[in-house]
Amino acid sequence: MLKAEALHSGDTIALIAPASTPQTSEKISKSVRYFEQLGYRVILGKHIENERGYLAGTDRERLDDLHRMIGDKKVKAIFFVRGGYGSIRLLPYIDYDLIKRNPKIIVGYSDATALFHAIYKKTGLQSLFFGPMPGVDIWNGFDAFAEECMWRSLTSNKAYGELPSLKSEIKLFGKNKFGAVDGRMFGGNLTVFSSIMGTPYIPSQKDHILFIEDVGEAPYRIDRYLAQLKAAGILDMAKAILLGQFTECDSEKEKPSLSTEQVFKDFFSKLNIPILLNLPFGHIPRQWTVPLGAKMKIETKSVSIIESVLS
Q1: Of these residues, 20, 31, 110, 308, which one is catalytic?
Q2: What is the pLDDT of residues 236-251, one digit of tens each?
Q3: pTM, rounded to two decimals
């Protein structure tokens, strides 16, 4: 396994846009100010505000920013300024050997799901964090819960331990009579995760903990993505399933539909594993920062990171 160094005050942080363009320049400038006020240096990708339809510039431009920041010895962490769409287009062209030679902390979520799995598969880098993005969560009123969790995750070379949560908010799917289970966490955004099934960019999912969330997807689409995971054997290989927030994933009232909860029941009710719902991750302000591929321990309503992912 490959680990990046933990962040320290005075380190350099890079902001890039490997998917879609930040919606306003203000989101970038206020993000830069936030990090600088905490004592970090900040550099921006050359093409961070480029626009090409729904993409932050051409594939070559976005890839160039990624490679430039990976290769820059001063840069200790790379934040994806937002998600959207586009990272999956870069996977065949990434210089994975460059990443092996220059392990960095990388932070993002949503569309970053594809890029994170590819990097993990090709390099073994453990320092890939599903966490707040500057142009979405950080630039204006960073949630205190998310902020504390993020900095604790990125600045310590110790195992995080139990992730903070309100036990009253976490729900158990069915009757949870299981003891503690552990496994490596894979998943992220359900839509994007399902899109890399059958590609060379999916790590081994044997005995994994599945960790999924989504936003703006109708129940029939969630049904489709879970059916894809089931057909690929992902659900049967899971030792536990963690369901985050499925934001704005309600059924359309004027059309016949199952609810999201009914879709979950159809796919999960026969699985003899722990399944937790309503966890604080996904497209929400109050979110965890969790490393892809990290070894997790699940015990009733407790979720813990039990290994260090930074040196």
Answers
A1: 110
A2: 999 999 999 999 998 7
A3: 0.96
